[in-house]
Amino acid sequence: MAPVGEAAALVLVAVLWGSTGPFLRTGAAGLEEVRCQGRLQQLLAEIRFLGLNYKYMVPFLLNQGGSILFYLTLASADLSLAVPLCNSLALIVTLVTGRMLGEDFGGKRAVAGMLLTVLGVTLCVAGS
């Protein structure tokens, strides 16, 4: 895969991973009310609840599609660049998506910590 194609695939992975997290949390709302007797019955009831919930399954499948794309891209991409790039971009996309959905992300200190993490990763990647 060409370097531009690799970069585009990694950005797409980051968008898929980052944007689906807040939707997965929203889609799983109500899971804590699922109650059954016994551990196995509880597990099966929770799997059924999530598996039949399109608000959970659509983001889950998109997220897993991102994982498959990441796996395929790693065949030709530089691992020391792919992982920090995907994680940093996914963090930013998660923050933006969560904010758009009205999630509380911990205030200015949490955002500053995330941005400093992204800056640190960027410096490490740029130095290699």
UniProtKB/TrEMBL annotation:
Signal peptide from the UniProt entry: 1-18
One GO CC term on file: membrane
Segments traversing the membrane: 79-98, 110-127
Mode of membrane association: Multi-pass membrane protein
Keyword terms of this UniProt record: Membrane, Signal, Transmembrane, Transmembrane helix
InterPro entries: TMEM234
Positions in coiled-coil regions: none
One Pfam short name: TMEM234
Name of the protein in its database record: Transmembrane protein 234
Organism this protein belongs to: Otus sunia (Oriental scops-owl)
